Recover the amino acids of this structure.
């Protein structure tokens, strides 16, 4: 029943052929078509501005005070593109292949190839917008290597690539707002999707300043609402990042793809206490020169500088001599967890390992190290108060990205016709593990170069649909549901803060559905989450009113959705009895403790279908076929 | 072009240019004043009064004077207008304010310093400029209006001398920020010229007021 | 990890048209590893548990890049440290027993929405008045077709690092937005991509800045000193020059 609508033909020609065949919408008709875009990150802002340039009427919504705040802004490292500017043999095929392999063969070939194809156009587009990418003295664009691939294809703007790319997309969006082609709604949160006769036809949003509920009609609705890492409470995501829009879509019939595929990033600043609100990523590039180690004696409490060389265990170099400290993210994360779980962890919580620059400073000199990592060292010192030039950094893995998301077909349309999902919000391109510098690439590919074409296939069949008045009964119903839920939250008269319930959820998720998962824990996690859900609705206390700015109410709604999502993630993790990418099932590992994929039984994407509050969701399969690449077990030994 | 003339930035630029013109005026004025102490007795009286006559009758000087008056009025009106405009941009002040942590005192107190200078100018012009033009002052031995004696007499007063000197302190701080700020507003304080401009501003803001203030101090001391 | 107790004086205001005032709170059991916002989280959880409304403040990424957090701490936007946003400020820079006064950004164009949250949409409108390069998706030449020297590129980047938080406005005694506006104008004026619209852009953005009701720049340098990204006032100089140049050119 799942139709991924992959065009026929050889892999490398699919997208070109598709573009020349996809039905077009005439300019006169575009003016009559309304498109709603939720979210203004890289994917949302680029899609909204591109579609507005094409002539559609676009309405854009974000919950922050400005579209420029979206969490894409925090991406540090860079953006990949198969430009081969460095003449090191890069090509579209290599980028495609690296992404498929990095994703542990759980993504769709056609989508990934298309991503690699358009990657070059992204760089051109951003440069033309005035994005100040790093350059060589001769004036050409600079590249660096990233994430253990063998070519230098990552474009970057110091450690703030995401910021610069987002500001580029934001400026394009601003231009369309000024022209009147986009109407921008800041501080508005989407609370439901309106589905009429089986098609997405609008949204219910709440004006976060006045508390008013608003109805907006659209011939199509595009979700660009990012990932759901905050289901773990602590993650590198922004505080406001949430799953609500995607979750409402799920409940209105959009299937959720591979919810359990979560990326745990190995180099984050460790948790320092119960009060901690979020985790900070230290760029992966640190592993290029830093060496990771723990003491080789359990519970060694000496200061790191007092531990002699022969009492240190450089465990990544020991276990993976070929890749050493540069193994992929999932492998590095699990190795750190393994050391800490067996009692070799360091720092006050014993949940940290050292990332040491002593040898790099000896080899390169402090100046070179400072030129490469100075701003990261500063950031680390600001947070921890320790100076990484003299004391090794302490790091620990943290939730960073969610590869799972709304299931979409080749057109980026969900299983609800007229409802699209782009960027991290969808599940499409990264399989079970995302490579570094690929998230920015995918967000902008979807927004600038894919969706504006593919949405045409749907809208070209919709040109005769007149604007549906927002007093339609489905709008009434959706608004009533949203109001009722907020009323219930506000009048609950409970005793527990939203924050404390969220923390509990995070704990359950991290312990049972984090870096290592097994059947026993996952099974018990389902009942724990179900009981947390009951607790939430029995005991949550939300102060204030709903006709004013009320951040606590916003948070309560988001946490309620996270709890439900958490259960689905656990179900998915339980269902997938193999290890792949970021999903490590302890039952499925090699004798040396490495992840073991089960291609015979699990070469598919899971698409979960909502069946009602009281019934269990159904798992649908999209079988993955690999015509071009050969499936192999990843090895970094 | 119309929007240029009504823009805040254009108004600021006019204020900056008029301010810089007044700095040039200060040098000229100072050169004239120094005659009060370079010589003494009759020679000083003769030369200074002749100079004063020249300054009030020469047509070229008259044009310069008109420019100076215009600059003073323009500079005052524009900066007052801008100061009130800025005041309305922050209707409620901070309960705790730590301006000293992020900026220099003079830069934050230009309206106050400007007012001190303005009050000084008014009193100063009443004492000398008005007296020279319309006052009931006698002639010296050579038949010129004797503004020299008016000056000498004025600075026998300790309070008047003190007022003059204090005003020069105010002027010094006003110049200290004003000069480099004017170059910044016009847009020519580039990184390359930043050093020289700041050095120039500092030197002017120290030397000019000290030189001016030294005159009444010397005159006062001589009168003792 | 030393324990800390603090007295907080926080501006509370229900809505844009309500009167506001300071309220005092004591928070106990803090520690030096907390960030400033985590300290406020502790206060808020305490307030929720006693049925009170928590203090509303803007925040999102909590790693110093989104530009959302915005509070004046003891008279200084983003607190006492240089080159730091509020979310990057940690409690080790305060002492046990301190009284800390927390106020919202104060500027007429930034009306208070609630407590410490202000409306910064004037910044969006200023960007809409020209802070972009008019290039449609798909019409860009190859990235290396426009060579840009490293120095120019770096200088443009320094300007582009602005996070749009508004600390410059908050710090300025005139509530001037010059640093924010100048940073965007300079970034694009420096780059070849920005040349075709160079004059139109500066005229449009400066006019919008005026129309929003920000005060004028008196070059105190407070904005640069408080800017969490340490953006130089030299860009204001550049904006001024660009503005004169554009108008004289006509």
């Amino acid at each position: 029943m799942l139709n991924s609508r992959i065009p026929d033909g050889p892999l490398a020609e699919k997208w070109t052929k598709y573009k020349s065949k996809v039905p077009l919408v005439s300019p006169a008709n575009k003016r009559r078509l309304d498109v709603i875009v939720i979210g203004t990150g890289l994917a949302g802002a680029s899609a909204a501005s591109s579609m507005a340039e094409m002539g559609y009427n676009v309405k854009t919504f974000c919950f922050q005070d400005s579209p420029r705040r979206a969490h894409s802004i925090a991406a540090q490292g860079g953006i990949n593109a198969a430009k081969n500017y460095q003449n090191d043999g890069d090509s579209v095929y290599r980028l495609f292949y690296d992404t498929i392999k990095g994703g542990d063969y759980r993504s769709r070939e056609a989508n990934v190839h298309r991503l690699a194809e358009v990657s070059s156009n992204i760089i051109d587009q951003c440069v033309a917008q005035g994005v100040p990418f790093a350059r060589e003295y001769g004036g050409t664009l600079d590249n660096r290597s990233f994430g253990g691939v063998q070519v230098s294809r990552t474009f970057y703007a110091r450690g703030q690539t995401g910021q610069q790319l987002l500001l580029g997309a934001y400026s394009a969006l601003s231009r369309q707002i000024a022209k009147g082609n986009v109407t921008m709604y800041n501080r508005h949160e989407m609370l439901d999707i309106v589905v009429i006769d089986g098609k997405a036809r609008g949204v219910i949003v709440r004006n976060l300043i006045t508390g008013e509920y608003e109805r907006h009609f659209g011939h199509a609705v595009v979700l660009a609402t990012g990932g759901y890492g905050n289901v773990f409470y602590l993650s590198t995501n922004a505080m406001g990042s949430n799953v609500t829009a995607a979750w409402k879509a799920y409940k209105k019939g959009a299937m959720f793809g591979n919810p359990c595929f979560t990326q745990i990033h190995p180099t984050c600043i460790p948790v320092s206490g119960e009060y901690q609100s979020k985790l900070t990523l230290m760029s992966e590039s640190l592993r290029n020169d830093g060496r990771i180690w723990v003491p080789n004696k359990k519970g060694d409490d000496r200061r790191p500088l007092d531990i002699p060389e022969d009492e240190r265990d450089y465990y990544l170099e020991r276990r993976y001599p070929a890749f050493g400290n540069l193994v992929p993210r999932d492998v590095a994360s699990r190795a750190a967890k393994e050391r800490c779980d067996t009692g070799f962890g360091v720092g006050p919580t014993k949940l940290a390992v050292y990332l040491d620059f002593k040898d790099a400073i000896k080899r390169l000199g402090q100046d070179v190290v400072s030129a490469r990592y100075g701003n990261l060292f500063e950031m680390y010192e600001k947070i921890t108060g320790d100076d990484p030039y003299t004391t090794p950094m302490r790091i620990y893995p943290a939730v960073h990205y969610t590869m799972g998301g709304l299931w979409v077909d080749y057109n980026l349309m969900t299983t609800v016709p007229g409802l699209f999902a782009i960027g991290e919000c969808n599940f499409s391109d990264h399989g079970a593990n995302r490579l570094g510098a690929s998230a920015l690439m995918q967000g902008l590919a979807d927004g600038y170069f894919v969706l504006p074409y593919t949405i045409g296939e749907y809208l070209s069949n919709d040109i005769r649909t007149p604007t549906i008045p927002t007093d339609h009964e489905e709008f009434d119903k959706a608004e009533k549901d949203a109001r009722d839920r907020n009323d219930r939250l506000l009048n609950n008269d409970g005793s527990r803060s939203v924050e404390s319930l969220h923390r509990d959820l995070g704990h359950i998720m991290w312990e049972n559905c984090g870096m290592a998962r097994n059947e026993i824990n996952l099974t018990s996690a389902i009942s724990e989450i179900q009981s947390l859900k009951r607790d939430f609705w029995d005991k949550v206390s939300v102060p204030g009113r709903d006709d004013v700015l009320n951040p606590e109410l916003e948070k309560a709604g988001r946490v309620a959705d996270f709890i439900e999502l958490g259960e689905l993630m656990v179900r998915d993790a339980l269902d997938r009895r193999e290890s792949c990418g970021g999903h490590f099932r302890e039952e499925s590992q090699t004798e040396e403790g490495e992840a073991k994929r089960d291609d015979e039984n699990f070469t598919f994407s899971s698409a979960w279908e909502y069946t009602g509050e009281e019934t269990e969701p159904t798992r649908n399969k999209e079988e993955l076929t690999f015509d071009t690449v050969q499936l192999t077990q990843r090895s970094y030994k | 072009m119309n929007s240029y003339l009504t823009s805040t930035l254009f108004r600021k630029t006019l204020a900056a240019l008029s301010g810089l013109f007044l700095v040039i005026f200060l040098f000229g004025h100072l050169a004239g004043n120094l005659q009060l102490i370079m010589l003494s007795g009759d020679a000083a009286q003769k030369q200074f009064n002749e100079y004063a006559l020249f300054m009030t009758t020469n047509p070229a000087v008259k044009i310069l004077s008109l420019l100076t008056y215009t600059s003073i009025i323009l500079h005052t009106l524009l900066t007052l207008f801008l100061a009130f405009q800025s005041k309305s941009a922050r209707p409620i002040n901070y309960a705790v304010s730590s301006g000293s942590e992020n900026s220099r005192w003079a830069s934050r107190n230009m309206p106050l310093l400007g007012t001190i200078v303005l009050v000084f100018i008014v009193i100063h012009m009443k004492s000398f400029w008005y007296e020279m033009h319309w006052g009931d002052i006698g002639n010296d031995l050579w038949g010129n209006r004797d503004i020299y004696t008016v000056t000498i007499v004025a600075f026998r007063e300790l309070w008047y001398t003190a007022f003059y000197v204090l005003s020069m302190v105010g002027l010094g701080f006003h110049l200290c920020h004003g000069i480099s700020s004017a170059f910044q507003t016009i847009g020519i304080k580039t990184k390359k010229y930043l050093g020289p401009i700041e050095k120039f501003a500092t030197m002017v803001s120290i030397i000019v007021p000290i030189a001016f203030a030294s005159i009444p101090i010397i005159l006062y001391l001589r009168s003792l | 990890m030393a324990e800390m107790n603090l007295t907080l004086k926080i501006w509370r205001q229900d809505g844009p048209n309500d009167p506001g005032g300071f309220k005092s709170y004591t928070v106990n059991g803090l520690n030096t590893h907390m960030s400033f916002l985590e300290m406020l989280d502790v206060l808020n959880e305490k307030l929720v548990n006693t049925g009170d409304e928590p203090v509303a403040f803007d925040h999102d990424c909590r790693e110093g890049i989104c530009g959302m957090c915005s509070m004046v701490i003891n008279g200084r936007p983003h607190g006492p440290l240089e080159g730091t946003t509020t979310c990057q400020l940690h409690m080790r820079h305060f002492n046990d027993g301190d009284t800390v006064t927390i106020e919202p950004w104060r500027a007429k164009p930034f009306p208070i929405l609630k407590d410490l949250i202000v409306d910064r949409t004037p910044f969006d409108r200023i960007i809409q008045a020209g802070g972009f390069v008019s290039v449609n998706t798909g019409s860009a030449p190859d990235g290396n077709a426009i060579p840009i020297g490293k120095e120019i590129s770096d200088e443009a980047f320094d300007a582009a690092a602005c996070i749009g938080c508004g600390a410059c406005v908050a710090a300025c005694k005139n509530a001037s937005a010059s640093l924010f506006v100048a940073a965007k104008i300079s970034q694009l004026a420096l780059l070849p991509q920005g040349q075709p619209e160079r004059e139109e852009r500066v005229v449009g953005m400066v006019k919008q800045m005026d129309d929003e009701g920000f005060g004028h720049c008196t070059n105190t340098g407070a904005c640069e000193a408080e800017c969490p990204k340490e953006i130089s006032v030299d860009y204001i100089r550049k904006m001024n020059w660009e503005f004169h140049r554009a108008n004289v050119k006509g």
Observations:
- The two ends of chain B are 60 Å apart (CA to CA).
- The interface with chain C takes residues 1, 3-4, 7-13, 82, 85-99, 101-104, 107-108, 110, 177, 180-181, 184-191, 194 of chain B (CB under 8 Å).
- The domain at 2-89+106-223 of chain B is CATH 1.20.1300.10 (3 helical TM bundles of succinate and fumarate reductases).
- Chain B has a mean pLDDT of 95.
